[in-house]
Q: What sequence folds into this?
């Protein structure tokens, strides 16, 4: 299922990871784990934020996907099922 993950990293915690030179590695590990079809990074609510759209094959992947964000970055996370336009058209057509 296509999912959208939005994570707002704790500023103090992510500052420490940045200063240690490990922020790039953290982001690369997240990208390798999720293999997103789209990834966006920028400020939100005064902190570093990433938004990824990726395929979640099984709900059992949720802990592996989120735990590093929660533990290493003390991030606030949202994980939402989403559709692209083709998915929406297919769903609407099924109503007929």
A:
């Amino acid at each position: 299922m296509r999912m959208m993950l939005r994570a707002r990293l704790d500023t103090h915690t992510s500052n420490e990871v940045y200063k240690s030179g490990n922020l790039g590695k953290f982001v690369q590990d997240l990208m390798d784990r999720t293999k997103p079809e789209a990834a966006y990074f920028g400020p939100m609510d005064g902190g570093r934020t990433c938004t990824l759209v990726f395929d979640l094959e099984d709900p059992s992947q949720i802990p592996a996907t989120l735990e590093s964000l929660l533990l290493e970055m003390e991030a606030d996370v949202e994980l939402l099922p989403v559709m692209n336009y083709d998915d929406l058209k297919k769903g609407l057509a099924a109503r007929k």
Remarks:
- The chain is about 45% helix and 30% strand.
- Strands lie at 2-8, 38-44, 47-55, 76-81.
